[in-house]
Specification:
The protein has 165 residues and is α+β, with helices and mostly antiparallel strands. 19% of the residues lie in helices and 15% in strands. InterPro entries: Formyl_transferase-like_C_sf (IPR011034), MPG (IPR003180), MPG_sf (IPR036995).
């Protein structure tokens, strides 16, 4: 259902939709192919900016821990937002398909096609309230054995076909 709060999902492909969960954590979505559709980014693998990400994450930690492994900077949807300083005020309704916005953008990785990895398809996390049909659809994707994955689905991983070179 379209509301003022989810308006970015009804905007052109590539629009940021940032929302709060549990009244305190941000989650980052990108509008996708059809009105109302989007992709939740649950995690990312940091490749640079480690000091900045660690600073943002450590500032939010309640455990008093002063150091994190880089693979754990963004290993969850809200951790990703904390590490990247993504907030609704800063990025909601920003078009990240436009590299001219100077805040955040998407771009092709020329090395991507040369990498060999396997993609795990599994049910999404935390949507049981949507009913069995939607809760069980394999609409979550991640790279097998990536250390930055927020939560692994061992059943889906075991069901993968062997990698063929």
């Amino acid at each position: 259902m379209r509301t003022a709060g989810n308006e970015p999902l009804y905007m052109p492909v590539g629009m940021c939709f940032i929302y709060m969960t549990y009244g305190m954590y941000h989650c980052f979505n990108i509008s996708s192919r059809e009105p109302g559709a989007g992709v939740l980014l649950r995690a990312l693998e940091p490749i640079f900016g480690f000091d900045t990400m660690e600073k943002f994450r450590v500032a939010k930690l309640k455990s008093g821990k002063k150091q994190l492994q880089p693979s754990k900077f963004c290993d969850g949807p809200s951790k990703l937002c904390i590490a990247m300083d993504i907030t609704k005020d800063k990025l909601n309704k920003v078009d990240i398909s436009d590299p001219e916005n100077n805040l955040m953008w998407l771009e092709d990785d020329p090395e991507f096609e040369n990498e060999k990895f396997r993609i795990v398809h599994c049910p999404r996390i935390g949507i049981a309230s949507a009913g069995k049909l939607w809760a069980n659809k394999p609409l979550r994707f991640y790279i097998l054995n990536n250390d930055s994955v927020s939560k692994r689905d061992e059943v889906a991983e075991e069901a993968l076909d062997p990698l063929v070179d």
